[in-house]
Amino acid sequence: MAQRSPTTDSANAANAARGSGAQTPATAAGAKSAVQKALEKLGLKRDIDLALHLPLRYEDETRITRLRDAREGDHIQIEARVTACEVSYRPRRQLVVTVDDGSDTCTLRFFNFYPSQQKALGVGNHIRARGEVKGGFLGWTMLHPSFRTAGGDLPTALTPIYPTVAGLPQPYLRKAVLAGLARAELSDTFAPGDLSRLNPHALWTLRQALQFLHHPTPDVSLDTLQDHTHPAWQRLKAEELLAQQLSQLQSRRARALLRAPVLAERTQADSLHAKLLAVLPFGLTGAQQRVGMEIAADMARPLPMHRLLQGDVGAGKTVVAALAACICMDAGWQCALMAPTEILAEQHFRKLLSWLEPLGITTAWLTGTQKAKERRSMLALIQSGEARLVVGTHAVIQEKVKFHRLALAIIDEQHRFGVAQRLALRSKAPSGAVTEPGEDGAAVPHGLHDPRHQVEPHLLMMTATPIPRTLAMSYYADLDVSTLDELPPGRTPIVTKVINESRRDEVVERIRSQIAQGRQIYWVCPLIEESEALDLTNATQTHADLAAALKGTVRADGQPVLIGLLHSRMATEDKKTVMGAFIAGHVSVLVSTTVIEVGVDVPNASLMVIEHAERFGLSQLHQLRGRVGRGAAASACVLLYSTGDGPRLGESARERLKAMAQTNDGFEIARRDLEIRGPGEFLGARQSGDAMLRFADLATDNALLEWARQEAPMLLDRHPHLAERHVQRWLGGKAEYLKA
To answer: What is the pLDDT at residue 436?
Structure first.
């Protein structure tokens, strides 16, 4: 079959939507029509995209219901004659149409209407109208029903209602989907019988499943369509999960063909690794030692490491990363560490500098707000190789940054970066470089333009948002996962209290008590300025209110209380000044937005107050709570919530706050967060670029996921061409994102 470009497919879809097979002059000239643009906005560029664009719901236009047989609240279709049509202005402008089907009458009301609709609903016209029928003192009523001229045969299948955008009406989209479904190449890439061991009824082919789901027969159970348990849905979910597992297996196998620097750990007492262990003011936990050995074993191989290091807040991921960096630098190579915010990047920089500078390591610092002179100096250190460790924000991956020999890339809070950014960091390795172990086991770089091999740096991604097992099986199947499941000794348990904002004064008294004991406090707000959409107290107002409430309060050392304000719209230098004052202990209370969510480490902070906690996600609440409890003092987290004008919190918000009060375990928090939000939102699909599941549900489709995991290697080994076709059909160019 000849290959069609996405542009051709999209043009075909647009032409099909117009009901014409011929190209318009605009399309032929290469310009995109309004319909094409609308289709592309929905991601419908290929015929297969249209075929997989499934309905949100269905309307039953296969039968006519007599008004005398209608029941309150039914969605029915009637066929009737218009007996009256007028524009009324009480209580507001509306088109009021009365129809009679011979058994009863019904009033159709339209608050938004056009002259063409008014004409179609003229007295004497016969129409079919469909909508929710409601009873009342004056008889049956339908509000904004869909309608068309009566006549012709009734449909034999349910009418699909598709997700759409402005400029793409349902009739247009239905034609486009129907045309795409007819043209799409839907031959099976695996036999329906392959699913029979999982579900003996799941013997539908892909084409049968799609044709049915676009036009189901009226006798089908709507429940099985809505809860996706129908065999046609099972087939689609199996296909989607198989595509995901195949793409990740392909990614893992492709990476196995790449070369990476062999960074063997030196065991001598003068190695950087040994020196760092000797100067650390604490011992490693058993989990840190185990994970450190897993990472060291990976880097000692000539294959690129692709490892996710997950651990709860405060589990000590930075130390593990520093020890991995030492192994890299000991071997004569460079290491880069990238963090999502300048505050977090600077904290990493200062901590690593305090550990590594005494060992003779030159560390470079890169951010987007650096002055030109300092930036030029850092770029020179990096390009020459003098800077063996580079720490920074996304500035690390800018084009002007040239590494001498990058062998290890560490990304902190990896889910906060886009896929393109993560791929860009990995592309910073020197082109054509190759390594072989030297006599002492360290990697010996060959010429940087040796054509024999392309070096791929080792990649260590870190996250303080633990990944539940089902997600690890699915979205991280091509990664090796290391888990820090043990907190360092000395971390005090955090008591979490959920309190209504009506008790705000009690919280202020608690703050006064903590200040008297020499402790520091965070107060986190969700907004910076007033929002018309959300009636939430902003950080600026809270700062002023607390300053007034705590006026005259003195600290344990007799000094007046200082209250700091920190938010993302402040100038970088101002943020640094405020944060520095809080870290130094000069500021007792820090009023902040969520810029302090990750990484900020102030052991003297013992109280975290989160205002309007019901507006935060569960993972974010747990991250914020982790800013306290880092010292020896007993710590607490107060979740202030508001019910607004209603009598109670929404179900989702109540579940989040309940989970926070019940457990400090990040892995349990992650499991509940997945239950509440679903995998797409949990993983931040929008910024991550990961090919998220559209049809399968990891909460209910574990059996299908297990089947796909077993099927993927067999299909890839026995029928690689079918496997490739399957991945392209489902993921297209998005398969590339899984490499990040």
So the answer is: 46
